[in-house]
Specification:
The complex is a heterodimer of chains A (478) and B (97).
Chain A lengths: L5 H10 L3 E4 L8 H11 L4 E4 L10 E4 L5 H7 L8 H11 L7 E2 L10 E4 L20 E4 L2 E6 L6 E4 L3 E5 L2 E4 L6 H10 L6 E7 L3 H7 L9 H9 L4 E4 L6 E3 L4 E7 L3 E2 L20 E10 L4 E4 L8 H20 L4 E5 L8 E6 L4 H11 L8 E6 L7 H11 L6 E6 L12 H6 L2 E8 L16 H4 L2 H9 L8
Parallel strand pairs in A: 1-2, 3-17, 4-12, 19-20, 20-22
Antiparallel strand pairs in A: 2-3, 5-16, 6-9, 7-8, 7-11, 9-10, 10-16, 11-14, 12-13, 14-16, 18-19, 21-22
Helix pairs in contact in A: 4-8, 6-7
Chain B lengths: L3 E5 L9 E9 L9 E9 L9 E6 L10 E9 L3 E2 L6 H7 L1
Classes of the chains: A alpha+beta (478), B mainly beta (97).
């Protein structure tokens, strides 16, 4: 089933017992953030806050749309209890087909039900939440989708970047300086000193938001992949004031321009690695030209922080599959890649058919080739289930030689400045280091000296295993 | 009653007493709370030094708040941004403004 918008997905969440409507008045200033955060930490439902202090009836905030594996599975039309491996497989297969979007007329676009243009623009009409105590401002863009375009090739990029309300008609934000948005700006707009048109889309169909987290290659449109995953085209509509197309069924669309010669503070913000670690005042400023929105709009929030939340779950899926494809492209004999949400894309598990330090070095080379969002990589043999962290930790503890099984590499200008353990100076210079742990048996070891794993499946003969399984209940075991 | 404002610094020692330029956020309750202004102002650690001043809460780059507020008297309000290039350090741009 393909969801056209945020609202029809909520109907399914409600039927599945995965949505809680909070009708009691709540304060946009910290209270909704604190509730959302605690609900993530207790693996609770998606929340829809229906009455927000200081705001008219109908202006709503949601939190945690696809913040758990069951809700992510539902968003893809899968069974709620689908195993993670099955979700990965469905996503990977979905990426193989691309369906281009369909342009619809303005009268068929719910996001045009209300329009503010020019002087009418007032960001304070929306209950943008102050999510964490001590954040730099009210983040209207957390579970968002930011659209920009390469004017020479027409490549339209969708990314997920934080944006906060700066004043009535200005946003500040922090797409990283190594992001695809920054790439487009630096290539096409900076040389001409021109503003970059951007649209901040809040609250559209769940797959579109998930794909906005995906590291898709340059010059590839995320929207085509969303169409493939949904099995039907995404409906887009032209913006009012800038030359961009946005999902027609969005809750709120903020149209603006990233200004080339003006800046203002962004951040700090409690970010996806689970810390508020000092990235601030090095972002971008956007002058808002128009806001279009559905009646009774839902502002999609994620009270980001320690995992799991929407960010760590979505990135676990989209980043892992992209990494697997990238490694295969480089001829690394990879079987599976898992990005455990608990590792917040800092920690990656890579299963390989053939191990050893040479392969481990190839893995590290891939992860450090361009902009670098990861830093710890555990390489395991294919008999280790990468999705099973008990098996992964066991392999790490027992197979990684601390003297000769670790490769690392330093770099500068490409690191992820949100990495909490980097010093302020390293963050400023985007200086970082990545490590790969070889948790495989050396390929040069003859078979007879390789330790035998003492598990039921590996240390007993097939006959014994079958006998034990056959008689299992007769032993009085369940 | 004195108004309340908030500002961010990279490190607490970065903020100096006297006449300075800074971005501040309006802490007045209501739908416009946290609106940002760029101002020229006198700031002081003690109320005695700025008896007619508003309260100024100070937070570091990690969002940590100094326990006791400073005081601020706004002398001029400017447009809420400074000249600079995207991804440039805003504090360096404020110095130039």
């Amino acid at each position: 089933m393909a969801f056209k918008d945020h609202r029809d997905f909520f109907e399914v969440l409600e039927k599945e017992g995965e949505l809680l409507r909070i009708r009691q008045e709540v304060d946009w200033d910290l209270e909704v953030g604190a509730i959302g955060r605690r609900v993530y930490e207790t693996e609770g439902p998606c929340l829809l806050f229906e009455k927000i202090k200081d705001y008219p009836e109908g202006f709503r905030i949601s939190n945690g749309t696809t913040g758990t594996w069951p809700r992510l599975a539902l968003s893809m039309g899968l069974r709620k209890k689908s195993p993670i491996r099955e979700i990965y497989k469905a996503y990977e297969e979905g990426l193989e087909k691309k369906i281009p979007p369909r342009i619809v007329k303005k009268e068929n676009a719910p996001c045009k039900e209300n329009i503010m243009i020019g002087d009418e623009v007032d960001l304070y009409r929306f209950p943008s939440p102050m999510i964490h105590e001590g954040d730099g401002g009210r983040y209207i863009g957390t579970w968002d989708l930011v659209v920009c375009k390469d004017p020479e090739t027409n490549w339209t990029n969708w990314g997920m970047y934080r944006f906060m309300v700066h004043s009535k008609d200005w946003l500040t934000g922090w797409p990283q300086s190594t992001s695809q948005l920054a790439f487009i700006y630096n290539q096409r707009y900076l040389p001409k000193g021109q503003p970059l048109p951007v649209a901040l889309v809040i609250g559209t169909d769940p797959i579109s938001h998930i794909m906005a987290t995906a590291p898709i290659r340059l010059q590839e449109d995320e929207v085509d992949y969303v169409g493939g995953l949904r099995g039907e085209p995404v409906e887009l509509v032209p913006c009012e004031t800038i030359d961009l197309l946005v999902p027609a069924h969005s809750e709120i669309v903020i149209e603006g321009e990233l200004i080339p010669d003006k800046i203002a503070p962004d951040g700090p913000f409690g970010e996806y690695p689970g810390y508020r670690s000092g990235t601030m005042c090095q972002g971008v400023a956007v002058k808002v030209k128009a806001i279009t929105y559905r009646s009774k709009p839902i502002l999609t929030m994620i009270a980001l922080g320690t995992p799991p939340d929407d960010s760590s779950i979505a990135a676990s899926l989209t980043a892992a599959v992209a990494m697997k494809q990238g490694l295969l492209h480089r001829k690394v004999p990879v079987t599976d890649v898992y990005v455990p949400p608990e590792g917040v894309t800092h920690l990656i598990i890579i299963g390989v058919k053939k191990g050893g330090m040479e392969i481990t070095r190839q893995v590290l080379d891939y992860f450090t080739a361009r902009r670098i969002m990861t830093n710890k990589h555990i390489v395991v043999d294919e008999d280790v289930d990468v999705f099973n962290m008990t098996e992964v930790l066991h392999a790490f503890a027992t197979k990684c030689h601390p003297g000769r099984g670790i490769a690392y590499e330093w770099y500068e200008g490409r690191a992820n400045s949100l990495t909490p353990f980097y010093s302020p100076e390293e963050r400023k210079r985007l200086k970082g280091v990545s490590v790969a742990f070889d948790c495989t048996w050396p390929p040069e070891w003859p078979g007879e000296i390789i330790p035998i794993k003492a598990s039921f499946k590996t240390i007993y003969s097939k006959e014994i295993q079958e006998k034990v399984l056959r008689n299992w209940t007769q032993y009085g075991l369940k | 009653m004195a108004k309340e404002w908030q500002t961010f610094v990279r490190k607490f020692d970065d903020l100096k007493e006297g006449k300075i330029k800074l971005f501040i956020k309006d802490l007045t309750p209501g739908p416009r709370k946290y609106d940002t202004k760029f101002v020229e102002a006198q700031v002081a650690k003690s109320k005695e030094a700025l008896p007619d001043g508003d309260l100024l809460y100070i937070r570091s780059e990690s969002g940590l708040k100094i326990p006791h507020p400073w005081y601020i008297r706004i002398t001029r309000e400017r447009p809420p941004f400074v000249s600079g290039k995207p991804w440039e350090d805003v504090f360096a741009a404020v110095e130039r403004a």
